[in-house]
Write a structure and sequence with these properties.
Elements (H helix, E strand, L loop, with lengths): L3 E5 L6 H12 L1 E5 H9 L4 H10 L7 H14 L4 E5 L5 H13 L6 E6 L2 H9 L1 E3 L6 E3 L26 H24 L3 E5 L4 H13 L2
Helix pairs in contact: 1-8, 4-5
């Protein structure tokens, strides 16, 4: 049976970086819900129109639409190992995912939690900078650019994202605690949760994830 892995963690824990790293190294499909929604919305199908009807109005895409997107992803990748980046984000989505996996004849191999203390989360988010041209992310404390606040790849001045503030961070952490912690408890109860130390370097965290998944 093909492996299905969920990568969990608080804001700024490096889920996207690690999922992309792992997928490249081990030929897993990297499924990022935000990216999948943007890609689907760019099409001309009825599903694309429905997604745009929510996103254009600034509304969250409802779980029913998310369910269809997940089911389509599994159907199109029956022979692929899959790593899901930051999804599910609520118990409702966890139940939705379990149902979709069951319908596709899959089981959850592992749920990997990248642990990070709140003080480290704050350091990472408040010092995060992004290149507006290529999208490459940096951190002025933990992963600074070679040149003073300029992108290593194209030399463009880095920008501070408007939502990387203490106020937004507090809101995101509150949502994480309310919505995601029950998922963590659920996966721990059913015996599929593994914890890795997110304070380690990027390569070290990646090696921890590899050990968990490849030994599962």
């Amino acid at each position: 049976m093909r492996r299905t892995v969920v990568l969990l963690g608080p804001p700024a824990s490096g889920k996207g970086t690690q999922a992309a790293r792992f997928s490249r190294a081990h030929d897993f499909l990297h499924f990022d819900m935000g990216g999948a929604l943007r890609e689907a919305a760019a099409g001309d199908s009825p599903l694309a129109e429905e997604i745009r009807s929510y996103t254009d109005a600034g509304h969250l895409v409802p779980d029913e639409v998310v369910r269809r997107l997940i089911e389509l992803m599994f159907a199109a990748n029956r022979e692929r190992d899959i790593i899901l980046d930051g999804f599910p984000r609520s118990m409702e989505q966890a139940e939705l995912l379990e149902h979709a996996m069951s319908e596709a004849g899959r089981e959850l191999t592992a749920a990997v939690l990248i642990g990070l203390p709140e003080e480290e989360i704050a350091i990472r988010i408040l010092n995060r900078r992004v290149c507006p041209v290529c999208g490459k992310a940096y951190n002025l404390v933990t992963m600074p650019p070679k040149s003073d606040e300029k992108c290593d790849d194209d030399g463009y001045p880095l920008e501070h994202r408007a939502d990387d503030t203490e106020e937004v961070l507090k809101e995101r952490l509150a949502v994480y605690k309310e919505k995601t912690r029950p998922i963590i408890a659920h996966y721990e109860a059913v015996g599929v949760l593994a914890r890795v130390d997110g304070t380690a370097g990027v390569n070290d965290v990646g090696e921890q994830i590899e050990k968990v998944v490849l030994d599962s």
